[in-house]
Amino acid sequence: MLDNLELQGLLNDLEFAGLWSESRQRQKKLSKRTIAQELRTKGVAQDIIDETISKIDDEDDYQMAFGLAEKKFRSCSNLDQEVIYRRISSLLARKGFNHSITARIMRELTGAN
Fold this sequence. Notes:
The chain has helices spanning 2-7, 13-28, 32-41, 46-54, 58-76, 81-94, 99-110.
């Protein structure tokens, strides 16, 4: 049964993973790490996840995180620095971005070294 579906092109985990990844990046602005976790949850094999995630450029991942943070920064820039950092780091953490990306982005947004 499954072999028949594969032959008909109706069952293709690699294609599914690629489409899922593109969709989650475009619509939800999720990190590579979160997309990989979602694919694992959906039962996609690790080699297919690795191949799919390898197609996401680190710089694209960073730019997506920066765009999210910049938008949040504009909406709360009048608040205390600690509140700004907490709100932006929380947003990025929910999207699956790690602390090192958050710290880099905050340095760029605030001009701190």
